[in-house]
Amino acid sequence: MGYMFNYLGPWRQQIRILAGNRKGRARLTFAEGEFAAVYAMSDVHGCCKELVEAHRRIEEDAARIPGPKLIIMLGDYVDRGPDSSAVLEFLSKSPPPGFQRFALCGNHDAELVKLYRKPAHILEWLGFAGTETLHSYGIDIEHLLQSAAGSEMIARVIRNMIPERHIQFLESLPIMLRMGRVVFVHAGVKPGIELKKQKDSDLMWIRQPFLDDGPQLPVLVIHGHTPARTPTFGPQRIGIDTAVSATGRLTVLTIKGTRVGLLN
């Protein structure tokens, strides 16, 4: 175990809710203390080797801890790194024995769904990220574009090469998980807006003013989305996107009881 501190206090929430947002993705709520250990990581970005290794480290650490454990993924499983398809295949399978695992949706994941459903926006998406993701499915998008393939042909190739079940997996992802006073999201929250009124788009995309001001709510937000070489500690927030596709470091944050730490 690396850096650790007591942040959560004795606060307890006794209810467990699985609720859908009528206008967006599901939002999950668990009682604080429902899991003996919680492990969170974010922004895998196609780095399957590092994802598998992180799971190995988690299982090794959790072997000494009795009781149910949770792995929470904070989004952005695709783009940038070389193995987006392998990452989605891995996360689509069952978690390790003794664990539950929830994967939240990130902005890159939502954009891949949009591309698959509306491939006419392929050039806009490629400008955003995506080339490495298509390569991971065996799609030579540069060749298609150089051959002046129309949007219909590109759409046909994408739909033939990317399994529908990967897209359905991304479409099924919730947008937020709350556990007592701790909130897990991809990007952050809009400061001062109660959680039930937060928009999916803010939870997936926000940077400022959240990074400087924090949530301005009685919660601690664990998030990714904004990369840094090391985890960032701001006002009532911890950012754990350590740019694994560039640095090779996939940070794992742990919560055990009321103690928050980083897994070496």
From TrEMBL:
Residues 38-235 form the Calcineurin-like phosphoesterase domain. Pfam families: Metallophos. GO terms for molecular function: hydrolase activity. Gene3D superfamilies: 3.60.21.10. This is Bis(5'nucleosyl)-tetraphosphatase, ApaH.
